[in-house]
Amino acid sequence: MNKITAFSIINIKLEGFKQFKEPYEVGMDTLTYISGGNGQGKTSIADAIAYVFCGTPFMGEKSCEKLQNPDCREMKVDVQLVDQDGEI
Description:
Blueprint lengths: L6 E9 L8 E4 L14 H13 L21 E8 L5
Antiparallel strand pairs: 1-2, 1-3
């Protein structure tokens, strides 16, 4: 297996994560930026990415308890990547 030298996030699936009780998918393969009004989920996407790669929320809080929706028994975050060779 060759070393991954670059990658791009192409998809994020959230469930039981913050305001996303039901499965929610964000396709990011053509995104260059994320914009929207207050409360639309921009920070939630950043929190999901930070949680997957670092195990902490985006703003660096130590606890991830606030990331799980209180109405859900479990939380799932799935990030799909593509590497420099186009391998998913």
